[in-house]
Amino acid sequence: MQTIDGSHRKCRFFLRMAGLIVIAAAVIAGAAVGAAGESTKVLVSPRIDEREQNRNPQESTGAVRIALELDDVIVGFFTEVSGLGSESEVVELRSGTESADVITKIPGRITWKDITLKRGLTSDLSIWEWRKMVEDGNFPSAQTNGGILILDSNHNEIARWEFVRGWPTKVIGYLYSTCEQCGTGKPVEELVITHEGIRRVR
Fold it and tell me: For residue 61, which of 160, 148, 153 has the smallest C-alpha distance?
């Protein structure tokens, strides 16, 4: 009996020690995680703060207006615009051996996108008169420098693209149907401008 009791006491002793070791390990692991968390905060927080500081104070967060400027004069406002940029063809150069073919991609010819502007039909004839110059063969007078301006609700300029030697390839008006069943719609004007280069300056 004494031998059995002694064995039980030893067993309880070792179990108690094992429990203390587990608790101590958990405390150490928790401290390590906490330290790692603090270290992560030190590394990440400045980057977040830097992004917040570099955020454009004029970043658009609401409704904007799109203005067309020709020869430093705004000639109209629009609700949609596309084509503000360029695109490069991709040229593939192959080198290497028959067993190891290496392809290098380099930029080729640059193409400038046509600018497309849309708005509801208005009584303003400025863009139609501009297009009429091309129709009448007065192309040299129609070709001009211009800009696309993005304005906020207070008419502050928040972005600007400038194009060179642009002219209207198309001006059309049409009825945009909003209900196929009832036949009602919204009259729309669309202007397409081709040019020889565009860049964002603001």
Answer: 153
